[in-house]
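In the previous lecture we treated proteins in isolation. Real proteins rarely work alone, and many bind small molecules. This record shows how such a complex is specified: first the sequence, then the SMILES for zinc ion.
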Amino acid sequence: MGIRPCIEEARKKQLTGSQGHFMRIAICREYWDSGVHDPEKLVDLFRAQADFNYEISMKAVLSVIKKREIPKIRCSTLRDNSPNFVNCDGCYFR
Ligand SMILES: [Zn+2]
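The predicted 3D structure, ligand included, written as tokens:
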């Protein structure tokens, strides 16, 4: 399963505030779901963020992936929670 366009687009933006925080969790879960299970690789997803901090990112990634189930977040939920960062025009499922 690939990465949805809305997730890829959002990852290129500066994810600020509570909407940005939600989006970062969504990106982490999306990549996990697509088979990226190495915490280092998940942290790497956020290196382009202006506020990138390795220790904080690693802590956040580990807290997301410690859960027993880590399903990707539905497009409709992404749009509800992070409307500033999500555009689902190119998504294959909504
Ligand atoms: Zn979408």
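Summary for your notes: The pocket of zinc ion is lined by residues 4, 6, 75, 78, 88, 91 (CB under 6 Å). The two ends are 15 Å apart (CA to CA).
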